[in-house]
Design goal:
The protein is mostly beta strands. The protein has a single domain (2-606), classed as TonB-dependent receptor, beta-barrel domain (Maltoporin, Chain A, Beta Barrel). The protein has 5 helices and 33 strands. Strand 4 (76-80) and strand 5 form a beta hairpin. It is globular. Mean pLDDT is 92; it is low at 1-31.
């Protein structure tokens, strides 16, 4: 697998030499990025394990689904049970997928009816997304339960004018988006619809029948500024998916073609009032999330879940201020019906505070503290401390220590699928430590950072001897490195690399589906009216599960490349084309589940 990583680095090196052959142009500096998922908006270089992907990169890559973009972030691994809608999961820093908290416009969207409460990003389209922020490491003091491995925060778009896109290509795939909006200082209103259908490929790599996939989403958003101090905002979204899946049919009970399907739909609504009063920017919000999921198989099941969150925050000070503070309180109510096998309510009342101080110019201190009081479990207090020092010459050193926790899911609480007497479960606990060394070139054209970390999880819940118990301890050690360079006015290069050692500290064995090494190199080129993006991604081998669903096996490593291009016909109309798996590599994200060979797509995009 080293050859894959060498090929990745060779591609990056070749990209770095391209400016010598390209037309000379003055390079634009990398802009200062602000992270908002930290609750208190903060400069990117002052946060360990923070990553931001903005709308211009999503458009350049033309990737329909966010799961493909997340895989280019160091420390983030996305595994899926086959392409085109296969069950997917997000791992951060080697932690299991249930320890990644996913937010859409600040609303948690994990599946309360899933045994582990995991969010499945397989149908999450990029057309409606403005920005992605990822915080690696435990963030319990910011967001409460589940944020042990990290947080993925997604912000949806506010449209201005009419936009449309249509694309078609391999495997009978058709993808489209249409949206319209008006936006001014005092008001905005936008609506959008996106959808994708494909004949797909077999989810099982030994299968012969195609597994089709359909997904669609709709969004409606608005804001109204009543006075200079009062603003109202509202969002409503709907997501639907219908995917054919493969399973373990008799008599062999190994992964193979089946007629199984999975249907799901989700509604999410969010209303909020923003008020400037008493020296604070205050926000009061209410969100409502409903999920319905139907497994169509030899053992059919229907799952429903809902979550309501009331939240108040009061913020004082901005990223450039020497002192800043945010206070907050929230009440989250979560219920689920496990296909008539039981239902329960997991509600939590929380309060938190985040403060940042710059006592002298080179030093920035940040502290956060949160108290969570679940109705059914013991209350927990989590904290986080961080210090960033500007040592001049563009170098910043940042260190942090944080805590996280995860309450048992509804399935674990009810001991769903248990065939032994249940035991009282405790929340899982975590501590994480990291150290970041970052550098920004004097002209701002290059930023680079390397981060080392350790993540410990205690009382991890596992299904052992036909029931759930607190038994496992896990540990992850790793290094994350990244660079972002404006090579010329036309060329931008992004590099990412992660080394991860994730083990079960109870047994010493490696954790499954965590590659020891992974990396990505993305080269973006714009020379009006042309544009292109080349992304190469590689992973070493990893421990996995064989086609029988039980036996341990190693999934081989791989390296794949995607190429996207565009040509602007006029100010509104652009032609697009992309090739996925450029070299027609045979590979698998999860062992036994198929991924497509070379695929070609062409389309047209309309923008105001």
């Amino acid at each position: 697998m080293r050859t894959h990583l060498f090929s990745l680095l060779s591609t990056a090196a070749a990209a770095a030499l391209l400016p010598a052959c390209a037309r000379a142009a003055e390079a634009a500096p990398v802009g200062e990025l602000i992270v908002t998922a930290t609750r208190l908006p903060t400069r990117l270089d002052l946060v360990t394990g923070a990553h931001v992907i903005e709308r211009d990169e999503l458009e350049a890559r033309q990737t329909p689904f966010l799961e493909d973009v997340l895989q280019t972030i160091p420390g983030v691994a996305v595994t899926r049970n086959g392409a085109f809608g296969g069950l997917a999961s997000i791992r951060i820093r080697g932690a299991s997928p249930d320890k990644t908290l996913v937010l859409i416009d600040g609303v948690p969207v994990g599946d309360p009816a899933d045994p582990n409460g995991t969010f499945d990003p397989s149908s999450l389209q990029s057309a409606d997304v403005e920005r992605i922020e990822v915080l690696n490491g435990p963030q319990g003091s910011l967001w409460g339960s589940d944020a042990i491995g990290g947080v993925v925060s997604i912000t949806t778009r506010e449209l201005k004018g009419i936009e449309a896109r249509v694309e078609g290509g391999s495997f009978g795939t058709l993808d489209g988006f249409v949206g319209a909006g008006v936006a001014a200082d005092r008001y905005a209103l936008s609506a959008s619809f996106s959808g994708l259908k494909t004949d797909g490929i077999s989810k099982a790599d030994t299968g012969t029948e195609k597994d089709p996939f359909k997904t669609a989403s709709a969004n409606l958003a608005g804001r109204l500024k009543l006075t200079d101090a009062v603003q109202l905002e509202a969002r409503l979204s709907y997501r639907y998916s219908d995917v054919a899946i493969d399973g373990f049919p008799p008599p062999n009970f190994t992964l193979a073609d089946t007629p199984d399907r999975d249907k799901s739909r989700a509604w999410q609504g969010d209303v909020r009032a923003l008020v400037d009063a008493l020296g604070f920017h205050q926000t009061v919000s209410f969100s409502d999330y409903h999920l319905w999921r139907h497994d169509i198989s030899s053992f059919p099941a229907v799952y429903t879940a809902e979550r309501q969150v009331w939240r108040w925050t009061a913020e004082h000070g901005g990223p450039a201020d020497p002192y800043a503070l945010v206070l907050g309180a929230e009440r989250a109510s979560t219920t689920a019906d496990l296909s008539a096998r039981g239902t329960t309510d997991l509600s939590t009342t929380s309060a938190f505070a985040v403060g940042r101080a710059r006592p002298w110019t080179p030093l920035t201190l940040t502290a956060s503290l949160r108290f969570d009081d679940p109705d059914r479990f013991q209350a927990r207090t989590t904290g986080r401390l961080a210090a960033a020092v500007d040592v001049r010459e563009g170098i910043t050193v940042t260190a942090s220590a944080g805590q996280g926790f995860k309450v048992p899911t509804i399935s674990e609480t009810l001991c769903d699928f248990c065939f032994a007497p249940p035991v009282q479960l405790r929340p899982e606990l975590a501590e994480g430590y990291d150290l970041r060394l970052g550098w920004t070139a004097p002209d701002g054209r290059l930023t680079a950072a390397v981060t080392g970390y350790r993540l410990n999880v205690r009382d991890q819940i596992a299904y052992v001897n036909l029931r759930y118990i607190n038994i496992a301890r896990t540990r992850s050690d790793g290094v994350e490195a990244e660079a972002d360079a404006r090579l010329t006015g036309s060329l931008r290069l992004k590099l990412a690399y992660a080394w991860t050692e994730a083990i079960d500290a109870t047994t010493g064995g490696e954790l499954l589906r965590v590659p020891r090494q992974s990396g990505a190199a993305s080269l973006f080129w714009t020379q009006d009216p042309w544009g292109a993006a080349l992304t190469v991604r590689a992973e070493t081998s990893q421990g996995d599960v064989a086609r029988d669903g039980f036996t341990r096996i190693r999934r081989p490593g791989f390296a794949v490349a995607d190429l996207a291009g565009s040509y602007r016909l006029n100010d509104q109309l652009t032609l697009t084309a992309r090739i996925e798996n450029l070299t027609d590599k045979r590979y698998e994200e999860n062992f036994g589940f198929g991924e497509p060979g070379r695929a070609v797509y062409v389309g047209v995009r309309l923008k105001p």
